[in-house]
Amino acid sequence: MRIYNKYLILLAIAAGLINTLLAFLGSDDLQIYFTVNIIAYLIITLLYVHLNPRARRALSSVGVGLSAGFMVMVTMTIIKILSGR
Q: How far apart are CA 73 and CA 85, in angstroms?
């Protein structure tokens, strides 16, 4: 099995376990799901950083996109807190 396949399988298993655990705990906030899945993605990607340079660039661009989404959520939460809602 190639390292890319192991990487994708590990991401799928981690996302499945995380989402199942959050659902079992009764979480109904989509931001929590998104945040925890992004953190898991970034940690697993750091573990597989020894991939070839082309794959590393692709994974970095995906990570930047997910981090931007995370920052948008943080900004929206801060605005919500500051506005008093």
A: 16
pTM for the model? 0.75
Is 35 in contact with 63 (CB distance < 8 Å)?
A: no
Compute the distance between CA of residue 21 and CA of residue 13 in angstroms, rounded to an integer.
Answer: 12
Q: What is the pLDDT of residues 21-57, one digit of tens each?
A: 999 999 888 888 988 998 898 888 888 777 677 777 7
Start-to-end CA span in the chain (Å): 51
Radius of gyration of the chain from Cα atoms? Answer: 15
Helices and strands in the chain, H and E counts: 3, 0
CB-based contact 63:44 (threshold 8 Å): no
Q: Which helix (H) or strand (E) holds 79?
A: helix 53-83
Q: Could you tell me which residues come within 8 angstroms of residue 28 by beta carbon, excluding any fewer than 6 positions away? A: none
